[in-house]
Amino acid sequence: MAETEPTLPQASETAPRRPLSRWVWGGPLLVVAVVVSGKLGWDAWKHQQFEKERTETPPHVIADLKLKLLWIPAGTFTMGTEKPWVWVNDVKKKYNDVKPAGWSEWKMKEITAEMPATVVTLTKGFYLGETEVTQAQWEAVMGSNPSRFKGPNRPVQQVSWDESVLFCQKLTLREKAAGRLGPKQVYRLPTEAEWEYACRAGSRGGFCFGNDDDQLAEYAWFEGNSGSETHEVATKLANACGLYDMHGNVMEWVASWKRYPGGFVTDPEGTVDRTLRVVRGGSSDTNARHSRSACRYLIPPDECGGLLGLRLAAGQEP
Asked: Which of 194, 231, 222, 191 is nearest to 292 (CA)?
């Protein structure tokens, strides 16, 4: 009987593997893309609306003082310092990790005044001075000029918070008496939130133009280029809101002070501390880090140091 060859086991037939549907892996990516593009589109639309309102709203001008205030539309921004470790690392790199004895910029406690970062919504627009108040403008209202570095178009300096508030009050009465100011309108110091919002002008960097210290000389009179004295206003570049000297020349008093609460707040006015007020903006004697948008100093209201000045705001009575 003939031998039959053994039958080899046959591989079972299986259905070919089908690739995953493109929706399985592409769906989540599409959702992310839609969300991101939607956010970018929303931000672009909001910026367009901001610019439209800002540029189409006429400035408020006090003609005989040559004092112009620009309209700053309402909006939302992050106030204060979000990532303090960034500048700490920059300082360490600058000094090769060797602590320079006595240098305050090394001390972490300085940055805590700018924290926690707080998302602020300003529901009302306001007018803010295109420049710092000049000596000529101050003298016309107050009848004196306390400045050390004299010049009619240089910012007034050596003025206290108390004197700055008095200037605003006198100017308000002057303009109402002349019929140029409505019954509910006043001149005042900006709130701290208004000041930083206007200074940043949409920037999330250290300065109104970003983070590059080397660009600061184009926008500000500060330690690196001032020769330790003030200069005429509006001789450097303006920020995106058309405001000059927000990062230097003289430090500017603001209306109120309150520790940053963190989280989200709307129209914060702050509280007036009995012993301290805030100045912002750097000066002709501060270095780049102390000229940042978020940098703030707490000073007694009767202090009238050499580089203290102000910028005028206008709005409705509270």
From this structure: 222
